[in-house]
Amino acid sequence: MGVELAVANAASHWTAMAKVRGWQSIEGAGFTAVRADTVHRVLLAAGPPSDTEALRAELRALFRRWESSHACVEDPTRTLDLSDLGFEAALAMPVMIRPPGPVVDGDGLRHRGDPERVQAGEARDERDLAEVERVVVEGFPIARHQPWRRGGHFPACDGDIAGRRSWLAHVDGRPAAACITHDDGAAVGLYWVATLPDHRSRGAARALLRAALAAHPDRPATLTATLLGEPLYRRLGFVEGGLARWWQFPATTAAPRR
Questions:
Q1: Measuring CA to CA, which residue among 142, 246, 136 is closest to residue 195?
Q2: How far apart are alpha carbons 146 and 67 in whole angstroms?
Q3: Does the entry feature the keyword Transferase, yes or no (predicted)?
């Protein structure tokens, strides 16, 4: 059930954002699609498609109808090939799952940096929520939202997204790491986990994740890991449930090939 939990949480996360932000969303046979402002996103189901060519044709028609110039398709089964439609595949990334339970570091090593200089918790007021957005945009980084401006990536209406919480870590009183969590009632997903370059390897991300996980002790947790983040996630109890391939349509003005 690991990958299924992760895929379901991601679909819930994106459709909840679509509802609040006024984006169109579609629940298709074997996929969820969201017509976001910048990148149209498709999340495929956790199981292999019963008819790959039919799914490809449906996606091709959807992108044509939406006049998509930027698109991302997340394929948790790595069965779809979209290269002939003008997409290019990114490296496969681990879909990771953590069972419910207390947060205990599993590496037996000392914390990097001085724990007393690192503080992490939920961002609740406007100042901290703005810092969460800035850290994500600059730390990830998200090029299309740079230079950062408030509301460009996380608009104010995101406060109305059900199950969403924002998290922020400080090092020596300065914002250092941030992420978003989404609780869909079955699992809690971690998204946009980012650390500013000047604060990496100082324990900020570890403190951030510990705080977010501790706030959901009865929920399994899910995330999609980058190569840099995967070792930390494993030390915090995450295990690989599968590999997902992300297909990106190039940042051009042309629509996907028909």
A1: 136
A2: 25
A3: yes
